[in-house]
Design brief:
Strand order of the largest sheet of chain B: 8-7-6-5-2-3-1-9
Oligomer: heterodimer
Largest sheet of chain B: 8 strands, mixed
Number of helices of chain A: 2
Number of strands of chain B: 9
CATH topology of chain B: Cytidine Deaminase, domain 2
Order of helices and strands of chain A: HEEHEEEE
Number of helices of chain B: 3
Helix content of chain B: 10-25%
Strand content of chain B: 35-45%
CATH topology of chain A: Ubiquitin-like (UB roll)
Structural class of chain A: alpha+beta
Distance between the termini of chain B: 12 Å
CATH architecture of chain B: 3-Layer(aba) Sandwich
Strand content of chain A: 35-45%
CATH architecture of chain A: Roll
Structural class of chain B: alpha/beta
Order of helices and strands of chain B: EHEEEHEHEEEE
Number of domains of chain B: 1
Shape of chain B: globular
């Protein structure tokens, strides 16, 4: 039982902090889980900035470094 | 309140003047964002991808690089800075709509009056704008 339970989660680094997430999640799943609107952020996985089109198909693996930043902009 | 060393304030102003007539932007780092009493120790001048006198948009690649540098230096983002070249130092509707970091200060320097820059700082959360004190030490 313990082995099955531990296999359901993986460790990743999220914005520099070690975090546990469920296995098999896509970037879209992660953003939904964190209640972040995909159109407002830039997401990088292992130093590669992802195209938004790839959010659905990119699965997060154990040990991945995931970074996201919200857009910063505005104006007079 | 946000405290900014005089030397960093001058670098921010220089960056804004160099960017003129376009808006300039940058990220402030330091300590105390979570507590609301912030002290700035670093300023990262950023490129305005819009190259416009009425808007700014930071390069996400530069943003990611700065966030990593801040972590390496053991500091956190305390402020997001930009200039208004022809309007007052107050957040525009667009500034408010694109304010996604409620824990940091949004600093605006107005260059509308030549030779008299005006720096103001605000908290923006859920589209509510509150001015805060800026102390230049």
């Amino acid at each position: 039982m313990t082995e099955t339970a531990s296999n359901e989660f993986i460790k990743i680094r999220l914005n520099g902090k070690e975090t546990e997430i469920k296995t098999g999640l896509s970037v879209t799943d992660l953003l939904l889980k964190w209640k972040i609107r995909a159109e407002l952020v830039t997401v990088e996985v292992n130093e590669n900035i992802l195209q938004k089109l790839d959010y659905d198909t990119t699965r997060i693996k154990a040990g991945d470094n995931v970074e996201f930043v919200f857009y910063m902009g505005g104006g007079a | 309140m946000i405290r900014i060393p005089e030397t960093i304030y001058q670098i921010m102003l220089d960056h804004a003047h160099k960017g003129f007539p376009n808006e300039a932007c940058g990220i402030l780092a330091g300590k105390g964002a979570a507590q609301g009493d912030k002290t700035v120790s670093d300023f990262f001048p950023m490129r305005n991808l819009d190259e416009s006198s009425i808007s700014y948009f930071m390069d996400p690649k530069e943003q990611l690089a700065v966030f990593k540098k801040m972590r390496e230096h053991g500091v956190e983002m305390t402020g997001i800075f930009h200039s208004h070249v022809a309007s007052q130092a107050y957040p525009s509707q667009k500034d408010v709509r694109l304010a996604f970091y409620p824990e940091v200060s949004y600093l605006i320097v107005s260059l509308s009056e030549k030779g008299h820059p005006v720096l103001k700082s605000f908290h923006i959360q859920d589209e509510v704008v509150k001015e805060e004190e800026v102390r230049i030490d």
